Structure formats: C-alpha cells, structure tokens
Amino acid sequence: MRIRDQRNRRRGVLAAGLLVVTLALTSACTGGKGGDKGPGWQDGADQPAAKASVSISEPAADAKDVPASAAIAFAAEQAEDVTVELTDAEGESVEGELAADGRSWLPAGALTYGASYTVTVTATGDDGLPATATSAFTVMEKPEKQVRISSFLGDDQTVGVAMPLIVKFGRDIPEKYRADLQRRMTVTSEPAQEGIWHWVSPTEIRYRPKEFWQAGSKVSYRVQAGGLPLGDGWYGRADLTVDIAIGPKLLMTVDNGTKRMTVTKNGEKIKTIPVSLGKKSTPSSSGTMVVMEKLRKTVFDTYDELGPEDGYRTKIDYAQRLTWGGEFIHAAPWSEGQQGTTNVSHGCVNVSMANGAWLFKNTRVGDPIVVKGTERKLQLGNGWTDWNVSWEEYVKGSALPYEPAANDETDPDVEASEAPGA
Questions:
Q1: How far apart are CA 183 and CA 170, in angstroms?
Q2: How far is CA 374 from CA 74, 243, 359, 381, in A?
C-alpha cells in the first residue's frame, strides 16, 4: 500500500493521453515588380484570431486557501486539442490527468499545503492556432482536522475471486460529501471488469465487480482524498493506492441435502468433502459467503455468549472465518463419524482434520463459499455479504448514478441459482 501525503511533489508529464499540437513555422520568398524581397516582419494586428477559446473557472484567479485536493476546471470551445500545465513556484510541472468529461484536470496527488501554483490551459482548434488561459492560486495551510483513510488489503496481496475492495474512514462521511469523494476513487483491472462502489456505512465503502473477479486479474484501486473537504472542517489526510492480484477461481459449494462440499478450481471439480453443518438449534447460514480470515490454530470460547451451561472452550485447527457471528470452516475430528450424514455443529462447516488441512492449504482470503439448503438465511452484514444481494440492489449503495457497461456478460462457471446476487 502506498500513501502519498501532501509533501510529495509529483513532477513530469502533462495530462495523460492529451495531444500537444506543435506548429511548424515556414518561410517563403515572394516576387514582385520591385524585385525579390526577403521575408518581412508582420504586425501583430495582421495575425488571424484563433477559432478556439478557453477559460479557467476553478480555482479562481489569485484564490487563497484552495484545498490541496483542488482540480482545475475549465471550459474550451471549438478545441480539438487541450493541454493543461500546472507548475509550482519554482516552475516544476505537476503530473495530472484529464477527467473523462474533458472539462477538468486532476493533479496526480494532493498539492503542497501553503504552496503557490500557476495553471495554464491551452486549447487549439482545427486552424492550428492556440488560445491560452492562465491562473495563479495558493493552497490552504495544513488543516488540524484530518480524516484517516485505510485499506483492508495491502500492496501485492493475492486474494480470491470474491474479494471486495474495502476502504474505511476515521470518521463518518456526511452524505453530501460522499459523491465528491467517490469521484476521487478509481478502480482499474486487467482485464477490464464492470464494478461499483457501495457505501456499507458512513465510515466504510466497498467495491465489487458485477460478477466474481476473473482469475488471474491485476487490480489497482486509488483514493485521491488528500486535502479533500469531508465536512465540518475535516479534510482527507492522504491519498491511498493499492495494487493486488486475483488468484485462481476456487469455489466451495456446500449442499445440506447431501452433506457434501464440492470444490472446483477454474470450473473443474477437484475434491468432494463430507461435512457436518449446524444442528437444528444452531443451523448454518445459507448464502454466498467469503473467507475473511484464516487461523491455523485458535480457540473458540463461547462462555460469554452462551453462558456456563451451554458455552464451551475448544482448541480449533484450520479455521476459516465466514461470518462475524462465528461461522467458520474448520477441522473437527470429534465429528468425523457424523460428517457426510448428520449435522451436529454449532453453525460451522465441520470437516475432518485431513480435509481441513487440505482446504487451508488451497484457499485464500476472498475465496467464495456457497451454502445451500439450511434452515437459516444469511443475514446481510454478517460478514462480507456483498455477493448475497442482487447487482440491481448493490448499485443502489453508490453515491453516484450507475452507468451500465456496454457489454453485459455473466459468469459461465456459476449456475444461475448459485450466481452472486441471484
């Protein structure tokens, strides 16, 4: 994970993807009755006016106390090419990128608190003549109230295909600031996949693709919140960027009717495992869950929850957390005689010691497990339940309007009844 604070100055190129027009100056000799004449100087009044025009609206000229997150907003008319150059007081260029709408430009990182900058926007029309607008501004001093921004995942982790991207904030983000913040949150994947951010609470936002991540994908997500106003005098502390990899598609499907877990890898069945699920008084949850945590050895202690009569304290091997409420996949040597035939657990997916070790070795945080046919439905919010709602419902959690992708394809490796969100 890389944190860029306001002291980091980015230098280098202009907005990515923009074309800069270079005018080729030519000269020619002309003849007349007076004989050959060399090229002469032209008065400025004789120069044709550029067809294009451009103006800068934000930050306003000579503005003070500009947020360190400031974007350059401009209007260009009859322009075929536009370039934006932002320089600091020493004349060093600041790297940035043009927005998709072509009407604003965002620096690659938060600007330096207290520093002065000059922006020049150049628009060139089909006549090849440039029009230029220039504005200077000063960034605010470093604010006292700053919101910490953190990611559940760190750089270079490899996770399962159901892994949601999870970003948390150190204080509540008021609703009226969420859309602006979300505009500064970008996700890129190779190959490209449709997805959206979803506000789980005022302090947490998650991103999931429409279908499971494609196996082997490279994913990068960025939060450009350094210096961004977040309400009540609070500002984002720093920008955040995370690069991760997606592992193979390992899917665990548990059927209460057969008391079996079927494990597939990239669509091919690789193992069938007998299981014992929760007994009728403590049933397992049915739904699509995600491995959230892996513990080689742990202790289950339920005395505080269940009391001295029903509570227990047991050493556990090969535990993989599925819900916040305490449902795990784990080795249970004491129930090996019932695995495959009878449910005797307190809600967990019991497997043998050998199968527990095999699963632990082959799974990753972010791998999905689908449990079917139990007496209890998975409660939303009890774990990473992002895949337990339909896509149509999930997009409603975004602070920005959902724009469907051009091509709508479903995951061919998951049956319709088991597909995420089904």
A1: 19
A2: 58, 37, 22, 19
Q: Is 348 a catalytic site residue?
A: yes
Distance of alpha carbon 234 from the chain centroid? 22
Residue with tokens 């990515």: 16
CA 370, CA 145: separation in Å to the nearest integer? 43
The pLDDT of residue 17: 34
3-state helix, strand, coil in the chain (%, to 5): 10, 40, 50
The reported pTM is 0.82
397, amino acid identity: G
> For residue 98, which phi and psi values (nearest 5 degrees)?
-75, 140
* Cis before 308 (ω within 30): no
Q: To which H or E segment does residue 146 belong?
A: strand 146-147
Q: 29, 198, 330, 346: which one is catalytic?
A: 330
* Other Cβ atoms within 10 Å of 122 Cβ, number: 22
Asked if 158 and 117 count as a contact pair (C-beta separation under 8 A), the reply is: no
| Residue 69 CA from chain centroid, whole number | 18
The pair of structure tokens assigned to 127 is: 């006549």
CA 90, 92, 96, 98 torsion-angle sign: positive
Candidates 29, 198, 346, 348; catalytic one: 348
Rg (CA), the chain: 29
| Catalytic residue flag (residue 346) | no
3-state secondary structure of 302: coil
Is residue 188 within 8 A of residue 219, CB to CB? The reply is yes
Rounded mean pLDDT for each run of 10 residues along the chain, 422 residues in total: 40 34 31 40 63 95 96 95 96 92 92 98 95 97 98 97 98 97 97 98 98 98 97 97 98 98 98 97 97 95 63 86 97 97 96 98 98 97 97 97 71 39 30
In whole angstroms, how far apart are CA 259 and each of 45, 90, 150, 226, 253? 88, 70, 40, 51, 11
Q: What angle do CA 355, 361, 362 make, to 5 degrees?
A: 90
Residue 199 bridge partners (DSSP): 205
User: Is-contact 274 255, C-beta < 8 A?
Assistant: no
